[in-house]
Specification:
Elements: E1 2-6, E2 11-15, E3 18-22, E4 27-30, H1 35-43, E5 46-48
Antiparallel strand pairs: 1-4, 1-5, 2-3
């Protein structure tokens, strides 16, 4: 799994059997070898989030706020 930052329109998708809500500016953990993920990367809607030295890989994805459309 790879942590990506989403910059497309608000959306939702099923990726490898998991429902994923995509909100502009939110980080989301997705499999890099998935065709849909590759398409979003090619369109510029997903960009890998750089992992800084010493930060580890246990960083939780940022959740959408109510102003971004979270329930």
């Amino acid at each position: 799994m790879t942590l990506y930052r989403y910059s497309g329109p608000p959306s939702g998708a099923t990726v490898d059997g998991k429902e994923v809500l995509l909100h502009p500016g939110a980080d989301v953990d997705l499999p890099r070898d998935n065709d849909y993920v590759r398409t979003l990367v090619a369109l510029g809607h997903l960009a890998p989030v750089p992992v800084s030295a010493g930060s580890g890989t246990d960083r939780a994805p940022r959740r959408a706020t109510k102003s971004e459309g979270a329930a």
